[in-house]
Write a structure and sequence with these properties.
The chain is built from 6 helices and 2 strands. By secondary structure, it is mainly α.
Protein backbone atom coordinates (compact mmCIF):
# COMPACT_ATOMS: atom_id res chain seq x y z
CA UNK A 1 0.00 0.00 0.00
CA UNK A 2 1.41 3.37 -1.00
CA UNK A 3 0.79 5.97 1.70
CA UNK A 4 1.04 9.71 1.85
CA UNK A 5 1.76 12.26 4.55
CA UNK A 6 -1.06 14.77 4.06
CA UNK A 7 -0.67 16.82 7.21
CA UNK A 8 -0.82 20.57 6.82
CA UNK A 9 2.16 22.73 7.59
CA UNK A 10 1.68 25.71 9.95
CA UNK A 11 1.08 28.28 7.20
CA UNK A 12 -1.57 26.19 5.44
CA UNK A 13 -3.24 25.50 8.79
CA UNK A 14 -3.30 29.22 9.63
CA UNK A 15 -4.84 30.12 6.26
CA UNK A 16 -7.49 27.42 6.58
CA UNK A 17 -8.29 28.49 10.14
CA UNK A 18 -9.21 31.94 8.79
CA UNK A 19 -11.10 30.49 5.81
CA UNK A 20 -13.15 28.20 8.05
CA UNK A 21 -14.72 31.26 9.67
CA UNK A 22 -16.33 32.03 6.30
CA UNK A 23 -17.30 28.49 5.32
CA UNK A 24 -21.06 28.80 5.95
CA UNK A 25 -21.19 32.12 4.11
CA UNK A 26 -19.17 30.72 1.19
CA UNK A 27 -21.39 27.64 0.98
CA UNK A 28 -24.54 29.79 1.00
CA UNK A 29 -23.12 31.93 -1.80
CA UNK A 30 -22.33 28.90 -3.97
CA UNK A 31 -25.82 27.55 -3.28
CA UNK A 32 -27.28 30.87 -4.48
CA UNK A 33 -25.19 30.68 -7.67
CA UNK A 34 -26.34 27.09 -8.23
CA UNK A 35 -29.98 28.13 -7.69
CA UNK A 36 -29.51 30.79 -10.37
CA UNK A 37 -28.12 28.18 -12.77
CA UNK A 38 -31.05 25.82 -12.06
CA UNK A 39 -33.59 28.56 -12.59
CA UNK A 40 -32.12 30.07 -15.75
CA UNK A 41 -30.15 27.45 -17.70
CA UNK A 42 -32.48 26.02 -20.33
CA UNK A 43 -30.42 24.77 -23.27
CA UNK A 44 -32.00 21.55 -24.62
CA UNK A 45 -28.63 19.72 -24.88
CA UNK A 46 -27.75 20.42 -21.24
CA UNK A 47 -28.50 18.08 -18.34
CA UNK A 48 -28.18 19.65 -14.88
CA UNK A 49 -27.22 17.75 -11.73
CA UNK A 50 -30.16 16.06 -10.06
CA UNK A 51 -31.24 17.62 -6.76
CA UNK A 52 -32.36 15.33 -3.99
CA UNK A 53 -35.09 16.70 -1.70
CA UNK A 54 -33.47 15.59 1.56
CA UNK A 55 -29.89 16.51 0.67
CA UNK A 56 -27.97 19.75 0.97
CA UNK A 57 -25.31 20.36 -1.67
CA UNK A 58 -22.64 23.03 -1.15
CA UNK A 59 -21.75 23.00 -4.87
CA UNK A 60 -18.00 22.74 -4.64
CA UNK A 61 -18.41 21.92 -8.35
CA UNK A 62 -21.32 22.47 -10.73
CA UNK A 63 -21.06 19.66 -13.29
CA UNK A 64 -23.42 19.63 -16.25
CA UNK A 65 -23.69 16.95 -18.89
CA UNK A 66 -24.08 17.24 -22.64
CA UNK A 67 -25.44 14.55 -24.91
CA UNK A 68 -22.14 13.85 -26.68
CA UNK A 69 -18.42 14.45 -26.27
CA UNK A 70 -18.49 16.62 -29.40
CA UNK A 71 -21.15 18.85 -27.83
CA UNK A 72 -19.19 19.06 -24.57
CA UNK A 73 -16.00 20.01 -26.39
CA UNK A 74 -17.86 22.54 -28.56
CA UNK A 75 -19.52 24.22 -25.57
CA UNK A 76 -16.24 24.33 -23.67
CA UNK A 77 -14.46 25.94 -26.65
CA UNK A 78 -17.32 28.44 -27.07
CA UNK A 79 -17.26 29.44 -23.40
CA UNK A 80 -13.46 29.69 -23.40
CA UNK A 81 -13.58 31.94 -26.48
CA UNK A 82 -15.94 34.20 -24.53
CA UNK A 83 -13.70 34.35 -21.45
CA UNK A 84 -15.52 31.75 -19.32
CA UNK A 85 -13.27 29.14 -17.72
CA UNK A 86 -14.64 25.62 -17.41
CA UNK A 87 -13.09 22.33 -16.34
CA UNK A 88 -13.65 18.67 -17.07
CA UNK A 89 -13.97 16.48 -13.97
CA UNK A 90 -12.64 13.86 -14.75
CA UNK A 91 -11.67 13.18 -18.37
CA UNK A 92 -10.36 9.65 -17.78
CA UNK A 93 -12.59 7.35 -15.73
CA UNK A 94 -10.89 5.70 -12.75
CA UNK A 95 -10.93 2.20 -14.25
CA UNK A 96 -8.97 3.52 -17.25
CA UNK A 97 -6.39 5.49 -15.25
CA UNK A 98 -2.85 4.35 -15.91
CA UNK A 99 -2.12 4.11 -12.18
CA UNK A 100 -4.72 1.35 -11.86
CA UNK A 101 -3.60 -0.63 -14.91
CA UNK A 102 -1.55 -3.15 -12.91
CA UNK A 103 -3.68 -3.21 -9.78
CA UNK A 104 -4.51 -6.83 -8.95
CA UNK A 105 -8.11 -5.93 -8.08
CA UNK A 106 -8.74 -4.05 -11.34
CA UNK A 107 -10.85 -6.27 -13.57
CA UNK A 108 -10.52 -3.61 -16.26
CA UNK A 109 -6.71 -3.53 -16.29
CA UNK A 110 -6.60 -4.90 -19.81
CA UNK A 111 -8.49 -1.89 -21.15
CA UNK A 112 -6.52 0.74 -19.24
CA UNK A 113 -3.72 0.81 -21.80
CA UNK A 114 -6.16 1.38 -24.66
CA UNK A 115 -8.51 3.85 -23.00
CA UNK A 116 -11.26 5.08 -25.31
CA UNK A 117 -9.89 3.03 -28.20
CA UNK A 118 -12.40 2.32 -30.94
CA UNK A 119 -11.01 -1.21 -31.14
CA UNK A 120 -11.57 -1.85 -27.43
CA UNK A 121 -15.14 -2.52 -26.31
CA UNK A 122 -16.38 -0.32 -23.49
CA UNK A 123 -16.27 -2.09 -20.13
CA UNK A 124 -18.23 0.50 -18.15
CA UNK A 125 -20.22 2.38 -20.80
CA UNK A 126 -22.14 4.71 -18.47
CA UNK A 127 -18.99 5.70 -16.58
CA UNK A 128 -17.16 6.35 -19.84
CA UNK A 129 -20.11 8.31 -21.28
CA UNK A 130 -20.26 10.54 -18.19
CA UNK A 131 -16.51 11.18 -18.40
CA UNK A 132 -16.90 12.12 -22.08
CA UNK A 133 -19.84 14.47 -21.60
CA UNK A 134 -19.25 16.23 -18.24
CA UNK A 135 -18.36 19.93 -18.08
CA UNK A 136 -17.95 21.85 -14.81
CA UNK A 137 -19.31 25.38 -14.95
CA UNK A 138 -17.73 28.15 -12.89
CA UNK A 139 -18.99 28.40 -9.32
CA UNK A 140 -17.20 29.91 -6.35
CA UNK A 141 -17.69 32.05 -3.25
CA UNK A 142 -16.36 35.10 -5.11
CA UNK A 143 -18.53 34.69 -8.20
CA UNK A 144 -21.08 37.46 -8.70
CA UNK A 145 -24.64 37.14 -9.95
CA UNK A 146 -23.48 39.09 -13.00
CA UNK A 147 -20.87 36.40 -13.67
CA UNK A 148 -23.57 33.72 -13.46
CA UNK A 149 -25.80 35.76 -15.78
CA UNK A 150 -23.03 35.88 -18.39
CA UNK A 151 -22.52 32.10 -18.18
CA UNK A 152 -26.26 31.46 -18.50
CA UNK A 153 -26.68 33.90 -21.38
CA UNK A 154 -23.79 32.35 -23.31
CA UNK A 155 -24.98 28.77 -22.78
CA UNK A 156 -28.62 29.49 -23.58
CA UNK A 157 -27.58 31.17 -26.85
CA UNK A 158 -24.97 28.57 -27.82
CA UNK A 159 -25.92 27.07 -31.19
Amino acid sequence: YAGRNSRLDEIQAAVLQVKLRHLEEDNAHRQAMAAYYYEHLNHPCLHLPRRLPDAENVYHLFPVFLQTKAQRDSLQAYLTAHGVQTLIHYPIPPHLQECYAKAPWNDYAAVAATAHSAAQPSQLPLTEHLADTELSLPISPVMSIQDAQIVVELINHWH
